[in-house]
Structure formats: C-alpha cells, structure tokens
C-alpha cells in the first residue's frame, strides 16, 4: 500500500481509538481498580477484536456481519452483562486485604473473553471499520500484503494509544494509598464501567 494511505489510516484510527469510549473506559477503570499487571489479556483481546473487524472490512465481510447480525447482538449483550458484573464487583470490593491474604483476581482467560466481548460488541469500533474505513482506503484494491500492512499499522497505533491510557491510569492509582481513597477509586471505576456498559447497550 502507499505510505500516504497508511498514514491517513493511522491518523484516523489514532483519533478514533484515543477518544474515550466504552473500551477505553473499561480499560482505565480496570487499571485504577486492580493495577496494570493483569490487564494485558484484556488488552490483547481488544487488539485481536479490532483486527477481526479490520479483516471483515478488508475482505468484504460487511455483508456477513449484517447477515449474522443476531450473533453480533448476542456478543454485544454478553459484553454488557460482564461489564455490569465487573462494576458490581468493584463497587463491593474490599479496600484492605487481611494479613497473608490477597484480593482475588479474575483469571487471564476471563479477562480475555471480557475484552473480546467489549470490542466485538462495541458499535463505535464496528462502525469505524465497516463504515468509515471504506471512505479512507480503497478496500477493493487491498491485497493480502496490504491487509498485513494495515494490520501492523493498526497494532502499532492501538498499542501506543492503549498503553498510554494504561500508564496514565497506573500513575493515578499510585496517588490512591488510603483505604478511603481506594474505596472512592473502586466506586468511581465501578461507575465508569457501568457507564461503559450502558453506552454499549444504548447504541444500536
């Protein structure tokens, strides 16, 4: 692909991915509440999910996405349900662990599934790849090599954007040392994740 086309795609994706939405809200809330060490399965799922949407657009599978609309609606509501569950867990999470006791963490597999459900069920992401992307790139002329270049560009942009959000949330977490501050952070995170779930649920 032409370098200019890749740069235009990167710039559009940077703006779309950098603007706070349900996925970013869930990511930031998770880091503030639990720290950054266990968030990478969630991140990996977000990136793979966006890769799936990119592939759908490039290989002309927008028709398939519309044909199997019910399946994508199910994925969307699974994501909403899991985000609501995470919000409840954060709202009720203890702010202090007893001696020799650590707060229970979600398994990497559960976090991966949550990230995948949030990404595949997020209409903002779907509309970027299936509706906006064709206006930026001539998808009819994209070869397998071009798809690989777009995928690599997507991965670099998303890594830069999402890791910046993780770093910012991690720095904010360091300021929250007291039980009262942690309780407030947990509840703000819970409210943010609940808002992300509501945003996904409200979008058609």
UniProtKB/TrEMBL annotation:
Keywords noted in UniProt: Cell membrane, Membrane, Signal, Transmembrane, Transmembrane helix
Taxonomy of the source species: Bacteria, Pseudomonadati, Pseudomonadota, Alphaproteobacteria, Hyphomicrobiales
Signal peptide: 1-25
Alphabetized InterPro entries for the sequence: LeuE-type
Transmembrane segments: 41-63, 70-88, 108-123, 154-172, 184-202
Designated name of the protein: LysE family translocator
Membrane topology per record: Multi-pass membrane protein
Subcellular localization: Cell membrane
